[in-house]
Amino acid sequence: MIQPIDYQVGPHTFRIQKDVAIKLSEAIPALAPFTVPANPNQEIIFNVTIDDRQMKTEEEAPQTEGDICFDWEDADCTIRPLPGEAHLIFITPRSSGKAYCMECSHGFRQCTVHLPDCQTEDAMPGSASSFVLNNFLMMLYAFNAARLHTLLMHASVIVSGGKGYLFLGKSGTGKSTHTSLWLKHIPGCHLLNDDNPIVHADTSTGEVTVYGSPWSGKTPCYLQESAPAGAFVRLEQAPQNEIKRESTVPAFADLLPSCSCLKQDKEIYREIISTVTDLASLTPVFRLKCLPNREAAELCRNTVTAGGQAVTGNDK
């Protein structure tokens, strides 16, 4: 067994152990900024072992009637519940059509990823092994962190004035476009993450913090940084720029669709609902109808930094 490596993402730490010679720093370079010194007293939210054993295929594995099938990051995913809080998870990248398996026990806390071809292919970014491993890790983080008031969200995040502003919306809405307008036209801000930031609600202090993560979509922005969450902004394309602050119930409805979650696991989903409820009451949530222009970014910045109410801009 090769020496385990610990990674801190957001406020939590997970551990990877290897029975193969795959170099994680080469397979998933985005993990490197999140490496932390091993500490035997550190609380670990999940532990992953990587080996090169050939696992049974999805068709050969024990069958159940509770398969959960969904799309996940350009791949088809199946989660197969087994007795005793155990699961099999299969990821099939659409680029290759080959299924890879992860065995999970103790409610996704102890896991083994089988990468039978990691010895024969170059484990570099873009290879099937690195793609699958990266997505297994992202999935495990989302499932385990949810129990700890921490969410993996689909958002693009700008830090301005020491606070993080999260832009939400369906794929294609223009989240990255809008944050690029902040970067271009608003001095002193920077991108924290462009696709999957971490959000933690500390219920004892009422503080909400947003963190960078190793998962940032097509934009390589992997920062081990954090900032107090200043606001959530749900984007909507429109013929003019208009922004308003949401009340608590619409705010909840704006936040929930942007959370990575497993609705079929009642325990995990209950924790996500609880955390989203906290976020909706602790942090301002805005709805921004906008054009992809400078005025939209300036209107948004001026409103969210002031905690403002409904404002209509021009449609230049």
List the secondary-structure elements in sequence, H or E: EEHEEEEEEEHEEEHEEEEEHHEHE
Nearest-angstrom radius of gyration?
20 Å
Please state the second-level CATH architecture of the largest domain.
Answer: Alpha-Beta Complex
Mass-distribution shape: globular
Oligomer: single chain
Count of extended strands: 19
How many domains comprise the coordinates?
2
Q: How far is the first residue's CA from the last residue's CA?
A: 61 Å
Strand content: 25-35%
Q: What's the CATH topology label of the largest domain?
A: Phosphoenolpyruvate Carboxykinase, domain 3
Give a description of the structure.
The protein has 316 residues and is an alpha+beta fold. The chain folds into two domains: 4-147, no CATH class; 150-306, Phosphoenolpyruvate Carboxykinase, domain 3 (Alpha-Beta Complex). It has six helices and 19 strands. The protein has helices spanning 24-27, 128-145, 175-185, 248-255, 266-282, 294-304; strands at residues 2-9, 12-18, 35-36, 44-51, 68-71, 75-82, 86-93, 100-105, 110-114, 150-152, 156-160, 163-168, 190-193, 198-202, 207-211, 226-237, 242-245, 285-290, 311-312. The strands form two sheets. Strands 10, 11, 12, 13, 14, 15, 16, 17, 18 and 19 form a ten-stranded mixed sheet that branches. A nine-stranded mixed sheet has the order 3-1-2-4-9-8-7-6-5, covered by helices on one side. The longest helix has 18 residues, at 128-145. It is globular, with a radius of gyration of 20 Å. The model has no long low-confidence stretch (mean pLDDT 91).
